[in-house]
Amino acid sequence: MKKIYQGYIASFNGLSKEVWWLALITLINRAGTMVIPFLSLYLTKSLNFTLGDVGWIMTAFGLGSVAGSWLGGKLTDTIGYYKVMAGSLILSSLMFISLQFYQSFWSICFGVFITILVADAFRPAIFVALNAYSKPKNKTRSLTLIRLAINLGFSVGPAVGGIIITTLGYAGLFWIDGITCFFAGILLLYILNPKKARIIDEVKTVENPQSAYKDYPYWIFFFAMGLFGFIFLQYFSTVPIFYEKVHGMSEDQIGLLLGMNGFVIFLFEMPLVKFFETKTWSNIANMLFGAFLTTISMLLLNMSEWIGILVFGMLFMTLGEMIAFPFSNAFALKRAKKGNAGEYMALYSIAFSFSHIFGHNSGLQLIEKYGFETTWYVMTALGLVCCLLLIVLRKKIKAEVRTEEERTKEEYTEEESVAEVKSL
Known about the structure:
By secondary structure, the protein is mostly helical. It has 16 helices and no strands. It has helices at 2-10, 17-32, 39-46, 51-79, 81-98, 105-120, 122-133, 139-167, 171-191, 216-232, 238-245, 251-277, 283-300, 308-335, 341-370, 372-423. The radius of gyration is 22 Å and the shape is globular.
């Protein structure tokens, strides 16, 4: 046990002070973001919307996420990640508080769209900030630390959120969410001010940056991550409804099951990532393994009516995301060295934003028309397509590396010939 403990602590060594502060800010922010996992339940139970209506509201959620990620990337490359992060946190605090006052279908669509637009502008900025605050060898673990903060907050948030709903109602969620976002923004302004924060790695590394939109392999990666997000997000929209309607679970029980996801990630993700880093497997191979495990988790939901299968499904999904997300982040950051970091990371975020547009709505529409069983089989099929795309990406990257090595070898041979001529 002592050896395991020492290994766990050692997995955090070498991370910069700025990364730790950014993780704390993320933890505070995420702990308050308890509205999102309960949004579908809030809309159906408190406002009496149909599943079809909720599907379109979640599409507005996804559109806001796409717009916010794109805008966040543009602003990050223009005014810098610090201003984007601070502005997003403080403005989104007001947006989350105001969400409780929207009651009609169209007003809620607008409210959700504008709230998520402001909130998700934070996502490309934090990736670029991590790139700047981390040494190259520590980037994957820095990203994992931020994910630990997110998931620790997420393990606390839904559990506390379920209790708040049963005691104070849904309105309390919106107030707590807004207050924590505001506090996180103030802490960021004070702690990570550019005059205090230490830049370790340059954000821009090339004079003539390549456009992410012209990077063909990156588009394969984009679609693979979009499909991965499509099935992953079911756990935070359609699966909670499945828990309630098919297995009769209450909000506090659902909150505890969702909270288990974050708690397991908090305990095991950093050592797991460090273990995978010691292997010779590529980022893409790791992503493929994580995507396959998440796909299996959807299939498990149809395997038995025993309530314990829900725990196994959650564990498979959790293990899958613990592997897929850090190494997909690492792949995107490494690829971003070819161009504007904000643009690359915005496109990475937009892949998951598109998942919000199509994933929630499609899942809800499928459930309403064909039931839960068919929906989980469809998600399993999409997960297999995601895995296939990652296999194609792996082949493309290998071919790209071989081409680059041949070009380098030719240039080296040419330099040797020139040197030999000069010596004569």
